[in-house]
TrEMBL record:
Keywords: Hydrolase. Residues 273-296 are annotated as: Disordered. The keyword Protein biosynthesis does not apply. The lineage of its organism: Bacteria, Bacillati, Actinomycetota, Actinomycetes, Kitasatosporales. The keyword Hydrolase applies. Residues 275-284 have a biased composition (Polar residues). InterPro entries: Bact_Sigma-Reg, GAF, GAF-like_dom_sf, HATPase_C_sf, HATPase_dom, PAS, PAS-like_dom_sf, PAS_fold. Residues 172-202 form the PAS domain. Pfam families: GAF (PF01590), GAF_3 (PF13492), HATPase_c_2 (PF13581), PAS (PF00989), SpoIIE (PF07228). This is SpoIIE family protein phosphatase.
Length: 884
């Protein structure tokens, strides 16, 4: 029974069609279920609700196969009041996220989202339970189809309107499966003079005067078997006259499944009542009288949607095969330069002849080796290779004709048979007549498809450029390259990179649309030599992966036959699956940036699939953008590595152990890591029992600041070890900075010398040259500056600096920071010296490391935005003696 608060399902509507499928509990099943529902609804002609149905099915199947972890049964039902889709799993959970007066919870929850969508998109929905299963169903009403216009003609003056009597009579004649008349209406009696009882049960051929049009072999019996036909013929009336009529035939079947044909007939001069408007060909640019008869071939193909090129081509090959009673047919479209033909539609050919395979226009020296002329091959066994598309298919005879528009080759249409000597020039004439009628429509649809592809390509490239420009990380760039190509352009992708001109290509990234095949694909590609790094632009075919996949599949099959492979789980399955996934066409595109090949982009298709030319052109455009992004990421990584290496060289490699003193330093560089900061610190031994410490900040960042930082840190050590006191050290450093001339930068610096005492205290001599003052934390929680401010370095020549003596007792802390700490801002607020004092006052009793960590945490919490300045924190603490 259904849960309360959710409408229970009803079977009151009449079910007119159903489709069902079961999907295993794997991630790939969600996409397969979406495709199943989309194909089913489109096949039923309900494309207007496909999007909503696919979204709901995707969420419900995800809940079943991912969250519940069971197989999902999907059932599609078409009724007279709409579409109903049921998704069942084997997890009989009894939790309903929506009840009276309750909500479903947060939309951000991973589960329950499918029912949220059901409530939002479906007309009705519900959940049914059984002891072993749970059904979630939803119903979508079909929108009312608005009254529309299928075709329309211009407004004509009255004299140009088609001629008709005061009353137009439309004869309705129904023909049963044997070709006999089964129904004859009153208008038929008025037009032809026969009563219903005179004609019922007699063949239509007894009354029809069927024309014999040169080049068209369709007879009356064939026309009555076609699903739709329009054209002209004559009807012999009761008085012996033959009345020209225009007829429209429609093939139908009754409730018992018996086929019959409904014929609508009007007098020839009233044909406008029934005739389907046709597009005039290039040669028919005259007035309304330029087209007098309907073409059965074109009428059978119907009036496909303007963007339905694939449907038009498929109907064309099927009609061509039937027209010449062939075993197979194919239609190829020419590339823009007319050098190759691309397979776009086939019927009756094996899977190896898939779409988008390419063959040359000129295959031989004779006229029969060119697709530009009609050709009849009576026996292909006598001329191997004459039609490359048919090699190995068992076809023996073939007739091919060109599709031309204004003298330009646009394609080729062919019909083949398994027996030799089937076709002659007469069949070639008939097929050429049909090709001429369809060529303009095909070319128009092809140009429309190309325009849509170009627009889609531009959108794709814009999005790809934005994504690639949004990162300078090499690994992320590689991942984006692959994710943009799979599955949009290819089934799988591999990216090879080249470190430098002397290095071999290295397999850096592999992606397949089926994640289960990625590892097998990576192993397969790693077992073969990488493609040659040829800088020639454009895609080139690479056969090595397909050959390796074939060998792997053959070896696995042999092991299976020999019984050496064991159960299926031993690895044969993945090997065969990988071989099938890599067995199609593989192309390589060079990644060229700044006139250097930095890698290769490899795209592949599964078994027997081929790339179409437009996709390869799009992939070439993408490869150019991806190559530049990848090279930019490389340059950025190199610059970042150099900056980090330089930054490390400006900081001490380690801190010395000072007896009786706890020391801790925290350094945080702002920015993205590609610039050297101006903050630095140092702690080093000077002489026995004496240690120097410094913390400073050079104005600005980058190479100029790094030069001053390096000068300051190394000069401090050198001068201090030469025996100079603090003021003398800083005065000489000031002179050295000024000697740099235009490259000099001013520097704030806190320098001190520290000597631990035998009583457990430590004596410090400190000079603070324009730097934030050091703070001393006493055991009683008192915080006060430990030095007075003095002029900064690098500004004036004559400096008179002095040092101050500070004694740290056990439990005291000396905190030294750069201005990145005190100038931390949140809007108009700044942490400042007072804020730092308040933080330090709470650190009584903490170790040096804990003091530095608390200060850093307070600085980070002061503002939400990331720090914009470097920060250095140096904490010195005299530990309290341990009492036994």
């Amino acid at each position: 029974m259904a849960e309360p608060g959710v409408e229970t399902r009803t079977r009151s509507s009449v079910i007119t069609a159903r489709a069902a499928a079961t999907f295993e509990p794997v991630g790939r099943s969600v996409a397969t279920a979406r495709a199943f529902v989309r194909d089913t609804l489109q096949g039923w002609g309900h494309s207007e609700i496909v999007d909503d149905a696919v979204v709901l099915t995707s969420e419900l199947v995800t809940n079943a196969v991912i969250h519940a972890g069971t197989a999902a049964d999907v059932l599609c039902l078409r009724g007279d009041d709409g579409i109903r889709i049921e998704v069942a799993d084997r997890y009989p959970e009894r939790e309903i996220p929506l009840q009276h007066g309750r909500t479903m919870g947060s939309p951000d929850r991973e589960n329950g989202r499918g029912l949220l969508l059901c409530a939002a998109l479906a007309t009705r929905w519900g959940v049914d339970y059984s002891p072993t299963r749970k059904h979630v169903w939803f119903h979508l009403d079909l929108p009312e189809r608005p009254v529309g216009t299928r075709s329309a003609g211009p407004v004509l003056p009255d004299p140009l309107l088609p001629l008709a009597d005061s009353r137009v009579r439309v004869a309705v004649v129904q023909i049963d499966g044997t070709g006999a008349i089964s129904a004859w209406n009153e208008d038929a009696e008025d037009l032809f003079g026969y009563g219903s009882e005179q004609v019922t049960g007699k063949p239509l051929g007894d009354f029809a005067a069927w024309p014999h049009t040169p080049g068209i072999g369709t007879g009356l019996a064939e026309a009555l078997r076609l699903s739709r036909w329009e054209g002209s013929y004559g009807i012999r009336c009761a008085d012996g006259r033959v009345i020209p009529v225009y007829a429209s035939h429609l093939r139908v079947r009754d409730a018992q499944g018996e086929p019959s044909t409904v014929c609508l007939l009007v007098r020839e001069h009233e044909r406008a009542v029934l005739q389907t408007p046709q597009r005039p060909s290039a040669s028919e640019s005259g007035g309304p009288e330029s087209r007098t008869t309907a073409d059965p071939f074109e009428v059978f193909i119907g009036s496909p949607a303007p963007d339905d090129l694939d449907g038009l081509l498929q109907r064309t090959v099927e009609r061509a095969r039937d027209m010449l009673d062939g075993d197979s047919a194919f239609l190829l479209l020419a590339t823009d330069d007319e050098t190759e033909l691309e397979v776009r539609a086939t019927t009756g050919l094996p899977s190896a002849r898939q779409r988008f395979a390419r063959v040359p226009v000129e295959t031989g020296a004779s006229r029969y080796g060119s697709a530009r002329m009609p050709a009849v091959h009576e026996d292909l066994a006598a001329v191997p290779g004459a039609v490359p598309l048919l090699e190995g298919t068992g076809m023996r005879s073939v007739v091919t004709v060109p599709l031309k528009v204004e003298g330009r080759l646009t394609g080729s249409l062919g019909v083949a048979a398994e027996t030799p000597n089937r076709y002659s020039n007469e069949e070639a004439l008939r097929l050429q007549f049909a090709a001429d009628r369809i060529a303009l429509a095909v070319e128009s649809a092809r140009l429309g498809e190309l325009e849509r592809l170009r627009r889609g390509s531009l959108s794709f490239l814009v999005e790809a450029s934005d994504l690639l420009a949004g990162t300078l990380d090499r690994d992320q760039t590689l991942a984006l390259m692959a994710q943009m190509t799979v599955p949009t352009l290819a089934t799988w992708c591999a990216v090879y990179t080249i470190a430098d001109q002397s290095s071999d290509p290295y397999l850096s990234y592999v992606l397949h649309e089926d994640e289960d095949l990625i590892d097998g694909l990576k192993d397969l590609l790693s077992s073969i030599a990488p493609p040659d790094p040829v800088p020639t632009p454009g895609a080139r075919v690479w056969t090595a992966p397909g050959e390796a996949a074939h060998r792997a599949a053959l070896g696995a099959s042999m092991r299976e036959l020999d019984g050496a492979a064991g159960p299926v789980s031993s690895g044969i399955g993945p090997t065969l699956a990988t071989a099938a996934a890599v067995g199609g066409e593989t192309v390589v595109l060079p990644l060229v940036a700044r006139n250097r090949v930095i890698g290769m982009l490899t795209l592949g298709k599964p078994t027997d699939d081929h790339f179409r030319q437009e996709i390869l052109e799009l992939a070439e455009d993408l490869s150019r953008r991806a190559a530049l992004a990848l090279d930019n990421a490389r340059l950025y990584s190199e610059r970042t590595a150099i900056s980090r290496s330089l930054q490390r060289s400006l900081l001490p490699p380690g801190l010395p152990d000072i007896p009786g003193v706890e020391v801790d330093v925290i350094y945080r560089a702002a920015g993205e890591g590609n610039e050297v900061g101006g903050d630095f610190y140092d702690l080093f031994p000077i002489r026995d029992g004496s240690y120097g410490f410094a913390i400073g900040d050079v104005c600005g960042t980058g190479p100029e600041a790094a030069a001053v930082t390096g000068l300051a840190r190394h000069a401090l050590r050198l001068l201090a070890r030469e025996g100079f006191g603090g003021p003398a050290v800083l005065e000489r450093l000031n002179a050295a900075i000024l000697d740099e001339g235009a490259r000099s930068r001013f520097l704030t610096l806190l320098y001190g010398e520290m000597r631990p005492q035998e009583d457990g205290s430590a004596v410090l001599k400190v000079v603070c040259a324009g730097h934030p003052l050091p703070l001393r934390l006493s055991q009683d929680g008192t915080v006060r500056p430990a030095a007075d401010p003095q002029p900064l370095l690098g500004v004036m020549d004559d400096l008179e600096l002095y040092e101050q003596t500070v004694t740290l007792d056990p439990g005291d802390v000396l905190l030294c920071v750069t201005d990145g700490v005190t100038e931390r801002r949140e809007g108009t607020r700044m942490l400042g010296d007072d804020g730092l004092t308040e933080v330090l006052r709470t650190c009584t009793g903490l170790t040096a490391g804990a003091v530095a960590a608390r200060v850093l945490r307070a600085v980070e919490r002061f503002a939400q935005e990331p720090a914009s300045d470097d920060m250095a924190i140096l904490a010195l603490r005299i530990p309290e003696p341990h009492h036994q």
